[in-house]
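Structure (tokenized):
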């Protein structure tokens, strides 16, 4: 799949070279992700904005014919977009485009594995991804957000900062990682 850097969305037509690109077909098939001809598939490799914590990130797009809107999917900690293949299939079959990125340090994105010096980098990365991708997909149709665990915390940060490219029609937060309970007594020693 190479590490070509473009900050430009690569989106397949049903019979384009990208639709038949062996490494991408292998990647999509290995996770059972939707692929042409069931939908158009796209990806983007882009660089985060931060100077001190800059890294290359990887985002993906699934676009069915005549989509009703776009669902932003944000994965949880120690996951990547490939973990959500069945959910992506369900959204595609229901007629929704799906966009999402591997968070820094996860999946095909660079960065220290599962770690960042400041949690706000994730929200900045997601905002950058949306700036680059959303205007090219379905900017005049509704935006929905579906996010799990750490992804839910990131999606909530973007909402609180009012950084979505348009007001989401709905936001679904699955098990949002909003904090940890205070531990007291004996369990605290083992924690």
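Design, position by position:
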């Amino acid at each position: 799949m190479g590490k070509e850097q473009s900050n430009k969305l690569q989106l397949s037509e049903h019979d384009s070279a990208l639709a038949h690109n062996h490494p991408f077909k292998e990647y999509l098939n290995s996770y059972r992700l939707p692929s042409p001809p069931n939908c158009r598939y796209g990806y983007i490799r882009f660089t985060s904005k931060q100077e001190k914590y800059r890294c290359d990130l990887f985002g993906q797009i699934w676009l069915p014919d005549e989509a009703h809107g776009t669902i932003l999917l944000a994965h949880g900690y120690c996951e990547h977009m490939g973990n959500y293949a069945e959910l992506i299939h369900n959204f595609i079959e229901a007629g929704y485009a799906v966009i999402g990125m591997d968070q820094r340090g996860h999946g095909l994105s660079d960065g220290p594995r599962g770690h960042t010096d400041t949690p706000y980098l994730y929200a900045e990365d997601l905002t950058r991804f949306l700036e680059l991708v959303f205007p090219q997909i379905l900017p005049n149709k509704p935006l929905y957000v579906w996010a799990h665990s750490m992804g839910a915390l990131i999606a909530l940060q973007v909402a609180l900062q009012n950084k979505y490219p348009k007001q989401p029609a709905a936001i679904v937060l699955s098990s949002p990682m909003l904090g940890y309970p205070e531990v007291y007594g004996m369990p605290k020693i083992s924690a």
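Reviewer-requested clarification: The first strand starts at residue 10 and ends at 11. The chain has a mean pLDDT of 87.
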